UniProtKB/TrEMBL annotation:
It comes from Halopseudomonas salina. This is DEAD/DEAH box helicase. NCBIfam families: P_estr_lig_assc. InterPro entries: Calcineurin-like_PHP (IPR004843), Metallo-depent_PP-like (IPR029052), PdeM-like (IPR026336), Pesterase_MJ0037-like (IPR024173). The lineage of its organism: Bacteria, Pseudomonadati, Pseudomonadota, Gammaproteobacteria, Pseudomonadales. GO terms for molecular function: helicase activity.
Length: 215
C-alpha cells in the first residue's frame, strides 16, 4: 500500500495520489475532480446539521498536494462549485487568501454541470469547456472523443468489496481504454457504485492509501 502510485495511461506516465488526485509530470499539472465547494453551506441552509469547515479542510488538502508536487498548473475537472455561492459563505472569504498563498500556480477548471449555476462568480480562475493536454482530453462528463484519452469526473465512482461479514466501500480511480474517471475530491460528495464486473481497472482509495482493485 502507498499514498502514491506510478501509473501509465495513454502512453503517458502519471502519478496517482491517495488524496484523490492525479499528477501529470510531463506537463507539471495536478488534476482533481468534483470539489463541490460550498455544498456544506447549502446543506446547512436547508436545515441539515452538517459541520462547518468542509471548504477549509478541502483547501488545506489541496495545499498539501501543491506543496508535495509543486505543479505549474492545477486543473479541476468540473463541479468546482456545488451551487452558486452566496455573499458571506465561508468559501468566498477563504478562497482569496488561499489563492494568494499559491499565486505561482495557474488555476483552471473545466465547466461542470453544477458550475453553470455559478456563472459570473469571479475568483480568478480560468474556465474551459474542455482542455487538451498531451494525449488527454480533460472534460467533466466521461464520454469518449476520437484521438484522445478522456480524463473526467462527474460520476464520483466507488467500489464495494465484501468478504463474509466484512464490507468496504471506497472511492476509486476507474481506468478504461478511452476514458478514465477520477474519484471526487470533495469531502461531502457521496459516490456512485461501480458495478462489480465493470470493464477496465480500478485503484481504490482507503484512508489515503492506494490499492489496485480486483480484476
Amino acid at each position: 500500500m502507498s499514498r502514491t502510485l506510478e501509473w501509465q495511461l495513454a502512453g503517458a506516465d502519471v502519478v496517482l495520489h491517495g488524496e484523490r488526485a492525479l499528477f501529470y509530470p510531463a506537463e507539471s499539472t495536478l488534476l482533481v475532480a468534483d470539489t463541490h465547494f460550498g455544498k456544506a453551506a447549502l446543506m446547512r441552509r436547508r436545515g441539515l446539521a452538517v459541520p462547518s469547515g468542509q471548504s477549509r479542510d478541502d483547501l488545506q488538502r489541496l495545499s498539501l498536494l501543491l506543496d508535495e508536487f509543486k505543479p505549474q498548473r492545477l486543473i479541476v475537472l468540473g463541479d468546482f462549485f456545488h451551487h452558486r455561492p452566496l455573499s458571506g459563505e465561508p468559501f468566498l472569504d477563504l478562497f482569496p487568501i488561499w489563492r494568494a498563498r499559491h499565486r505561482a500556480v495557474s488555476m483552471e477548471a473545466v465547466v461542470g454541470n453544477h458550475d453553470r449555476h455559478a456563472a459570473g462568480v469571479e475568483l480568478g480562475i480560468d474556465w474551459h469547456e474542455h482542455l487538451d493536454l498531451g494525449p488527454f482530453r480533460l472534460r467533466h462528463e466521461p464520454e469518449p472523443v476520437t484521438g484522445r484519452h478522456v480524463l473526467a469526473g462527474h460520476l464520483h465512482p466507488v467500489l464495494t468489496l465484501q468478504v463474509a461479514a466484512d464490507r468496504l466501500r471506497a472511492p476509486v480511480f476507474w481506468f478504461r481504454d478511452q476514458v478514465s474517471v477520477l474519484p471526487s475530491f470533495g469531502a461531502l460528495t457521496g459516490g456512485w457504485d461501480l458495478p462489480r464486473k465493470s470493464p477496465g481497472q480500478t485503484v481504490l482509495v482507503v484512508e489515503g492509501e492506494l490499492f489496485e482493485g480486483p480484476d
